[in-house]
Design brief:
10 strands, globular, 11 helices, four-stranded mixed beta sheet
């Protein structure tokens, strides 16, 4: 059985982490499979948005403790670098990535969700960074992304106490943008993905990059990047068609994505 499943639903790629018997815990095999899956999606111009979820009752319950328990310091550092490389690929992926968090998102699972552009949760989801309680630090970007998303003080408390959060608490601090009933959550995530996939994709991808890059550089440099993205869009057929339709009071029903 594949540890990562890829399904295509129109212009949306649904990626499912598939180790339900161990609550989808991350190990080297899963990360390698996720790397390959994202490469496959990137090669497909017809797949515009990615949704990542987990099989069974867990999103990802963390990194695989059984695999990590006897690591040497050098092996642990290499494992952290591998995980960070995989998650940076998600963050820098040229198309939007949505985390559809269906259950446990702990440790590496929370870090995986934070690597995505948008996070949607089931009302049964739980979030947390339990690593300090296991005598280690978060190793897949958790100390960096959590503070950038929820602020330093909140991130400090959550990491240093290893406290878990309900979906509603995660919503309150801005870790997720929506919470839906468990039996609706994936459908709602796919609806959002289809809504984004239906937009002009050059503009979508440029907007994603402007937000991502701009968050981590000074405002003057970020505005320069935004101006480049804005200008690039005016070289596309979709910009010309869309603005012509607007001026003619017509509704655009499809785009050329060029």
């Amino acid at each position: 059985m594949a540890v990562i499943e890829l399904q295509e639903q129109g212009n949306v790629a649904l990626v499912t982490i598939n180790r339900p018997r161990v609550l989808n815990a991350l190990n080297v095999e899963v990360m390698q499979a996720l790397d390959q899956t994202m490469k496959t999606i990137e090669e497909r111009e017809d797949l515009h948005v990615v949704v990542i979820t987990g099989a069974g009752r867990s999103f990802v319950a963390g990194a695989d403790i059984g695999e990590m328990a006897n690591f040497t310091a050098a092996e642990a550092k290499a494992f952290s670098r591998h995980g960070n490389s995989t998650f940076i690929t998600l963050t820098r992926f040229p198309r939007p990535v949505i985390a559809a968090v269906n259950g446990f998102a702990l440790g590496g699972g929370c870090e995986l969700a934070m690597s995505c552009d948008i996070r949607i949760a089931s009302d049964k989801a739980t979030f947390g960074m339990p690593e300090v309680g296991l005598g280690i630090t978060p190793g897949f970007g958790g100390t960096q992304r959590l503070a950038r998303i929820v602020g330093m003080s909140t991130a400090m408390e959550l990491v240093l106490t290893s406290r878990t959060l309900s979906a509603e608490e995660a919503l309150k601090i801005g870790l997720v943008t929506h919470v839906f009933p468990a039996d609706e959550m994936l459908d709602r995530a796919m609806d959002l993905a289809r809504l984004i996939a239906a937009k002009p994709q050059v503009a979508v991808r440029q907007a994603k990059q402007a937000i991502r890059i701009g968050k981590n550089i000074d405002i003057s440099s970020a505005i320069c990047f935004e101006a480049e993205a804005f200008g690039l869009c005016f070289s596309t057929e979709d910009q010309k068609d869309s603005m012509r339709a607007f001026l003619n009071k017509e509704k655009m029903t499809s785009y050329k994505n060029r």
